[in-house]
Amino acid sequence: MATRPIGIIMHGITGRMGYNQHLLRSILAIREQGGVLLSNGDRLMPEPVLVGRNAEKIEAIARKHGLAKTTTDLDAALADPSNAIFFDAGSTQMRVELLEKAIAAGKHVYCEKPISETLEEALSVAASAERRGVKNGVVQDKLFLPGLRKIAMLRDSGFFGKILSVRGEFGYWVFEGDWGVQAQRPSWNYRKADGGGMILDMLPHWRYVLDNLFGEVRSVSCL
Question: What is this structure's pTM?
Answer without folding.
Answer: 0.87
